[in-house]
Structure prediction request, 26 residues.
Amino acid sequence: RRGGSQAVLRREQTFLGRLREARRFG
Prediction:
């Protein structure tokens, strides 16, 4: 990924957050 776009970063953060939530709730 070149020039990390803010949209991509935001999308990654949301994905990570969702994964974290799923893991937390099991």
Observations:
- The chain has one domain: 1-26.
